[in-house]
Amino acid sequence: MFQALHHPPAYRQTKLPNHCIAKKRRVKNNARRDIIIAVDGPAGAGKSTVTKLVAKKLRFLYIDTGALYRALTLKAKRLNLNLKNKKVITALIKKTDIKLIYNKNLLKVKLDNYDVTKEIRKLYITDGVSEVAKIKEVRQIMTELQRKLAKNNNSILEGRDIGTVVFPNANFKFYLDADFRERVRRRFKELKEKNKNIKTKLVKNNLSTRDKMDSTRKIAPLKMAKDAIYIDTTDLSIKEVVDRILSWIRI
Ligand code: DC
């Protein structure tokens, strides 16, 4: 069913740890379980770009979990709600419909049936999203939604808590990281394409605030799962990271 994968010699592993061999585990009724790949790490580590490419190569469903938190943040912002008000934001998520739609490899994010794919990437959303993402009830609903999205699909999910909370039994877990300066450089480059006036300082502040909030929150903080494979992407090209991930996958 799956094509043989390319394993570049430089990254070929002589012996894979047991957890790295995908087990198409059989559940009670003998149905095959879907394969889950978890990709976690801080902003700017290259998760989105790399995860999309791996998904394409493996023909897996790509699930951008950050987009879900971003869409909810957008709705709260549009309604001028206080992002710190847990009750209000929890009530809001219960009457919000967020969909990830796939069209010829392009992912569209729909919020209450409106396309918000571009809007959720703007800095004013990025600035508020970690506040929304730390609310326990929001995370519970988002976690359920992510599990539902991956149900009946071989999926690769990127986020902060995929390997630790959403899918602790994922077949493969990766943790992508990079030096802070490199992450700022990448994010700045990306944002500059959309907004010529963007300042490095703004991007730097946003990344360090988010790093801190995402990794110190009480519920499902950003951290590497014990059984994840750590990849420092600082000096690697996109292709090198993709190849390195693929070199670990056995299907
Ligand atoms: O990956 P991203 O930058 O689009 O994510 C935006 C924010 O959403 C991130 O700063 C923290 C939050 N998030 C999260 O808490 N858990 C996830 N699984 C994904 C994202």
Q: What is the correct CATH architecture of the domain at 9-17 and 33-61 and 119-250?
A: 3-Layer(aba) Sandwich
In whole angstroms, how far apart are the ends?
Answer: 9 Å
Rg over CA atoms, rounded to whole Å, is 18 Å
What structural class do you assign from the helix and strand content? Answer: alpha/beta
Strand percent estimate: 15-25%
What's the CATH class of the domain at 9-17 and 33-61 and 119-250, please?
Alpha Beta
Order of helices and strands: EHEHHEEEHHEHEHHEH
**The CATH H-level homologous superfamily of the domain at 9-17 and 33-61 and 119-250:** P-loop containing nucleotide triphosphate hydrolases
Helix content: 40-55%
Identify the quaternary structure here.
Answer: single chain
Poorly predicted parts: 1-30
Could you walk me through the main structural features you see in this protein, from its secondary elements to its overall organization?
It is a single chain. The chain is an alpha/beta fold and 251 residues long. It is 43% helix and 15% strand. It is built from 9 helices and 8 strands. The chain has helices at residues 47-58, 65-78, 86-94, 123-133, 136-150, 162-166, 180-194, 200-216, 238-248, and strands at 36-40, 61-64, 98-103, 106-111, 114-115, 155-159, 172-177, 229-232. The chain has a 5-stranded parallel β-sheet with strand order 2-6-1-7-8, sandwiched between helices. Residues 1-30 have low confidence and may be disordered. 2'-deoxycytidine-5'-monophosphate binds next to α2, α4 and α8. The site of 2'-deoxycytidine-5'-monophosphate (DC) has 13 residues, from α2, α4 and α8.
